[in-house]
Amino acid sequence: MLLGALASSLAHAIQDRANLDPIEPLKPDQSVAWKATLGSYRDSGTKSSATDINLRGNTADTKFWLGHYQDETNFTQSRAGIEQSSNLFAYGQLISSLQWASGGFVGGSITWDGKQDQVNGLSPLLGWGRTNTKPYENLNFDPNDSLLLGGSFTSSPIGRLSLYQIYDDRLKTGQRVTHLVWRRPMSEAKRLTVDAFERVGASNAGEAQVKGHGLAVTLDIGDYFVRMAYDQKANFTQANITRVVVGLRF
């Protein structure tokens, strides 16, 4: 069932381990930039489905969010989180995060993104995440008590290209997901993000490993965006999840 894939005991504590959804720039009359998101998830095998709503706000260097998940069996879980970016100037930025969810879940992470603002070229990505392993709807489908290793390359013609791997360093599942992400402004009002990934590992320690691939494409047009994704072997189970996400910035 979809619930089995999304309510994994291996929880994803934050929304963007590689800072792929950066803080929104504030408009001149804004003290907080808001983003509302509605997501639909469907397992192509069992035909089961779930929905998730999320409201996120950010100031110049802080994100905060509220979310609520529900599947067709009426299982629900609510969550709240906060993420802080600290400017390290010549050394990029340090991103720390803490999230809570109903059912007793707590998780957090810290990620170093070595890219400097307005500076092109190569830069490192390093991250570390920990949870209390309580059940949580893992809507990002990556391992959670984990390390992140990788880097990015930025140039004006191509945008930002990131290659990184997130892998379990705590629960002995062998889980690892490798991402290749291309993010490029198409114009002042349009932006394209493409995330191709491969995952391998077991749902729990001692179980058989699975291997799958996936692709997510996000198009931003002005204050609106849409994301379509296919996650094969989501959360290292037999579930193949199709995601459709729409959102509005205001």
Characterization of this structure:
It is a single chain. The protein has 250 residues and is mostly beta strands. The chain has a single domain, classed as Porin, CATH 2.40.160. The protein contains one helix and 14 strands. The protein has one helix spanning 2-6, and strands spanning 33-43, 49-58, 62-71, 76-87, 93-101, 105-113, 121-131, 146-155, 159-168, 176-185, 190-201, 210-221, 224-231, 241-249. A 14-stranded antiparallel β-barrel has the order 1-2-3-4-5-6-7-8-9-10-11-12-13-14. Strand 1 (33-43) and strand 2 form a beta hairpin. It is globular.
User: Into how many domains do the coordinates divide?
Assistant: 1
Output the CATH topology.
Porin
List the strand order in the largest sheet: 1-2-3-4-5-6-7-8-9-10-11-12-13-14
Please identify which CATH superfamily we are dealing with: monomeric porin ompg
What's the helix-strand series?
HEEEEEEEEEEEEEE
CATH class: Mainly Beta
* Stretches with pLDDT under 50, minimum 5 residues: 3-14
Q: Summarize the amount of helix as a percent range.
A: under 10%
Give the assembly state of these chains.
single chain
Tell me the radius of gyration: 17 Å
Looking at this protein, list some descriptive labels.
single chain; 250 residues; mainly beta; Porin; 14-stranded antiparallel β-barrel; 1 helix; 14 strands; globular; disordered N terminus
